[in-house]
Amino acid sequence: MTRGYAVRLTAVALALAGVFAATACSGGDDAPARPEPVAGGAAALPGPAPAGLALRPAPSGAPGAPAVTGALTDGSPVALAELWADRPVVLIFFTSWCTLCADRQAALSELARRHRDEVVFVGVATEDKPEDVQRYLREHRVGYPVALDADGLIWRSYAVREPPAVVVVAKGGALLRGWPGGVDAATLDAELRRLVLAG
What we know:
It contains 6 helices and 7 strands; from the N terminus they run αββαβαβαβαββα. It starts with a helix and ends with a helix. Strand 4, helix 4 and strand 5 form a beta-alpha-beta unit. The protein is globular, with a radius of gyration of 25 Å. The protein is an alpha/beta fold. The strands form 2 sheets. It has a 5-stranded mixed β-sheet, with no helix packed on it. The chain has a two-stranded antiparallel ribbon with strand order 1-2. Helix content is 35%, strand content 16%.
């Protein structure tokens, strides 16, 4: 082996070692952090309703719920009528600065997880900064989609004046029940079983 060839071979080996070292370190502390998914965005929307979902029929003469549209926390569009086309919807009107909302949120989040396949929970926040809503959603482990109602149109459509408020809409869009001032999770659970869940 000539001296020149040996030098070139050593240089190639060192270069490869550098490449391998850089590759091995790419997942370390110096790697850019993967962005955290936006809480309340399109990823929180439910999949198709399960086959054979047993629901109570809406009472005849019930008024129709306002079929408003909005944008989720990640900017994705959401149409309430599309959500209640195949299962009931619970609208949770809240703000990040509402103390009663915060007091009840953990139990409501758990209720939403328990009924995820049967009922779509949707949060609607207004008069709030997106970063404050994100902090609230993460702090209270809110796993359902949340619309940012910047102009208050959704709130006004449902005659909500201040948080909290909760509205239950039947499959198909009949407005069944509303609670200005909100409702605790145990009462809401009982009302869902009485009004919409047949199983």
